[in-house]
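Reviewers of the previous submission asked for a worked example of the structure-prediction workflow described in the proposal, so we include one complete record here. The input consisted solely of the amino acid sequence. No template or homolog information was supplied to the procedure at any stage.
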Amino acid sequence: MSKLQIKVKYFDKEIDKLEKISKGDWIDLRAAETIELKQFESALIPLGVGMKLPEGYEAHVLPRSSTYKNWGIIQTNSKGVIDNSYSGENDEWKMPALAMRDTIINKNDRICQFRIIKSMGETEILETEFLDEVSRGGFGSSGMN
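From that input alone, the workflow returned the following structure tokens.
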């Protein structure tokens, strides 16, 4: 079975190169500049990379487990989705962040992570008047008490 290949362009030559470690399914991304944020300020944090993903794949970008603990920032779009077509010469990946406290994120800090997954592919949407006869019992419910 052949390995998937991701072509990476580094917009910043000083940050550490991407590395896929054997113990995890996610690849860490680093801040490409030092950013100081006051509480409730937001920023698009440049990650210093752009990528061409394998055909039929997209990337999901999320904070690392320690990101909030270390810097007090949250990702404002909940989860970033980067599709294969975001691969132009100037398409640098960024993390939209909101500071919940005063913080300084230093260049090269590992602030988020990504993984690639298969895209949805060809999909047809069909209108219907009826769905399944049995309902689960409400929003956020498995139907169990």
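The mean pLDDT is 92. We consider this example representative of the routine output the project will generate in years two and three.
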